[in-house]
Amino acid sequence: MPIPYENKEEELLKFVINQVDESKAYQQPRIEQVREYTKRYEAKRSISGLLGWGDDPKRNPKDSPWEGCADVGIPIDAFTIEGLLPRFLKVCYGSKPIVWVRGTGQSDIPNAPTVQEALNYQLTRMIKIYRRMKLIFKTVVMEGDGFAKCVWEKKTRPFNKVVYYLRDPLTQQLILDGNNKPIEVKSDFIPQADSNTGVAPELFKDEIQDEKVIYEGPMIYGRTIKELIIPKNAISPEIDEWDWICDTYEVTFDWLARKEGEIKEGKFKNLEKIKEDLLAKASDHNKAMREPILIYEWYGKYDINGDDKDEELVVFISPKYKVLLGRMLSPFAVRPFFHYQIIPMEGRAFGKGVPEFLLGLR
């Protein structure tokens, strides 16, 4: 791969956008195929031609082999898919508890039941593993491929909080501390008069919105080939054998702004250019802040230090605004994705799903 001498980050930005955009165009026919297979699953009746499955019979009546002929179909795709799902789930998550814990040493034995209960609570109540994996398996059966993405997530919930500050009774300005922040006190605090002026500050009551962490831990998200882009030359279903994998999703500027900071902490940089472009194209500030922003989250091999050896990187990019939001050496031993297939095909990255397998049944 080319070694960026003059501007490493600029070369990396161009490289990732070029690779992903080329592979996205190559992957598009497959994306269109699986969308039609989804229509077959959703169809309630049969209409000649794949594009017509599930249409309104009044707008598109069946007139073949003669006008007014019967239009009754059996949704074999849906029956087959719904019949397979419980089998998958029972094999993977049918046992109770899902996780068994056994101590390795004598001192671990008393703690094993507590750890087991905590892990199962996390899986069933916080991650909701059964519901999430059911949707992923359903994608696998319908489209031939389904992906699970595992991330470390912090979930917060906003709540209103009453606070008390010290205020100058003469100027009505909040009194600041050495860091130029309002001095916060308790509701029963009794201000003392200043020895020089003889004036005591007054309490000022205010209400602010704060955030409370309600969960911090692993989380699983289902992804499909409509969001995950893979190299166009991939010939294996094994993710770690690919040169790279790229997750794509849309966020708002508010979402990005809340995560501004160091990339090693899972945060972003270079947000000013995006903000400037958003505001330049919209007269309404609030509307501009809610415009969807496409993100490329890229995991792949790239020689970032010019030693002729590829490093495994994690890169975040806004392709529309040509902004590198952050990059770092990957902290993961393996890429945080799992690829599931029901009918794998030799020499292909993509498998086959039930609708494609039953395509000849009309």
Characteristic terms for this protein:
extended, 362 residues, four-stranded antiparallel β-sheet, five-stranded antiparallel β-sheet, 24% strand, alpha+beta, disordered N terminus
In N-to-C order, the SSE pattern is: HHHHEEEEEHHHEEEEH
Mean pLDDT rating: 87
Largest beta-sheet characterization: 5 strands, antiparallel
Number of helices: 8
Radius of gyration: 28 Å
Weakly predicted, low-confidence segments: 1-6, 46-51
Helix-strand layout with pairing:
Layout: H1 8-42, H2 76-93, H3 112-126, H4 129-143, E1 145-167, E2 184-185, E3 202-223, E4 228-229, E5 244-251, H5 253-257, H6 272-280, H7 285-288, E6 293-302, E7 311-318, E8 323-329, E9 337-341, H8 354-357
Antiparallel strand pairs: 1-2, 1-3, 1-9, 4-5, 5-6, 6-7, 7-8
Helix pairs in contact: 2-4
Account of the protein in words:
With 362 residues, the chain is an alpha+beta fold. It is 29% helix and 24% strand. Helix 2 crosses helix 4. The longest helix is centred in the N-terminal third of the chain and has 35 residues.
Task: Give me a quick take on this structure.
By secondary structure, the protein is an alpha+beta fold. The protein is built from 8 helices and 9 strands. The two termini are 48 Å apart.
